[in-house]
Amino acid sequence: MTKIVTAAVLVIGDEILSGRTKDRNIGYIAEYLANIGVELREARVVPDVEAEIVAALDALRARYAYVFTTGGIGPTHDDITADAVAKAFGVAIDEDPRIIAMMRRRYGEPGELTPARRRMARIPAGAELIENPVSWAPGFRIGNVIVMAGVPSVMQAMLDAAAKRLETGVKLRVETIEAGAIPEGRYGDALGEIAAAHGETMIGSYPSYADGTFKNQIVVRGRDGEKVAAARRAIEAMLDKIRGAAKAR
Amino acid sequence: MTKIVTAAVLVIGDEILSGRTKDRNIGYIAEYLANIGVELREARVVPDVEAEIVAALDALRARYAYVFTTGGIGPTHDDITADAVAKAFGVAIDEDPRIIAMMRRRYGEPGELTPARRRMARIPAGAELIENPVSWAPGFRIGNVIVMAGVPSVMQAMLDAAAKRLETGVKLRVETIEAGAIPEGRYGDALGEIAAAHGETMIGSYPSYADGTFKNQIVVRGRDGEKVAAARRAIEAMLDKIRGAAKAR
Known about the structure:
Two copies of one chain form a homodimer.
Chain A: E1 6-12, H1 14-17, H2 25-36, E2 39-46, H3 50-63, E3 66-70, H4 81-89, E4 93-95, H5 97-106, H6 115-119, E5 122-124, E6 128-132, E7 136-142, E8 145-148, H7 152-163, E9 173-180, H8 184-197, E10 201-210, E11 213-222, H9 225-248
Parallel strand pairs in A: 1-2, 1-3, 3-8
Antiparallel strand pairs in A: 4-5, 6-7, 7-8, 9-11, 10-11
Helix pairs in contact in A: 2-7, 3-4, 8-9
């Protein structure tokens, strides 16, 4: 039996929606999860508005095995993710003594343990901490929601830590076939027939455009390696036929 | 009176969720819209699954002035965006004679006007075409939904074309203040007070991390230039005070 484990990403932050910061976390998490056998099914970006965060969390956590959030867990007034998560789960939020203890070691000087820094110790009741080897302030997990920083290097370290405790499913087998300069419009019909005949695989065609020409790749994904290989062979044979016909003209 | 025009982005494509392709369109559209006075309020990424696309379209188009979609309008079987949009709007979809005429000029040779290519002529009834100077096949707009290609250079050209017919609102004034190496935890409390006192501006604090240290920027946004400037002055004075105190020690 093949186990399927699904996930969503929720990016929290005005700076992404204003265009100030270009998100790099969705793509990183997508690739990371694919490699460990978790299927990313949806991603959303919402602003630093509690009601928006709560609504998105509730929609996503009910639907997917895991929800990974990024952003909004720092020490400033616009960092409201922890409070929004507590609200979504209907649990209390307070300073976590484990984090306060970490802070006392780190901010020993008088005046260093500011109220702003203490904000970072606010964690929903019942959450497990996710360690942060980059900049110490931890993320956390509550239920199926994994709350991480927005800064990519910090998020990546937290994802490594969180991944140790994730259930994972079967890893999708992925095969990429170069169609090169053959236009999609020339192989689209045949590819559609192959996709219909190989229903247990997912087949996509992806153009990229540079220097005035398109180059195309066809990607086959599936849970069963033999079925993916069979689809790949059918696609390669189809492309060979098109290449042969082009040469013969 | 200040007019506010809102928008959402809907990225359609398995390749983004699998991590194969890193989305660059959300960030581009976000910045583009901010520059013309349209506020991006939400973004979503969904797979090439009709029901998912329709559900996201319906949620977003009801809520925001515009919805910009990217991806899924090519000639292959996995390009299902036009059908999903027609379904969401409850209108028919058929080959558009304007596009078929373009195709006949372009694909004059026998056998070139393949059924796959004709897929790209399928447009929901009542849609306006959005020209595509890069690779000819048009996008379209129906109601408040603007449907664009996924390939960034093509999407960007379509966005230029679509933008000519957008209603726009007041452009947010944005000011960025360098906090540099002052830790967020040291200015977070004072910044929160400034944010509370300047309620008609949006103030965010954004760390970036490189080479083992954080650098911070504070961003003030707002519709009223004078209020943004006042918040900026308050933040600069606050940072100067912290810098002065640090020197005095």
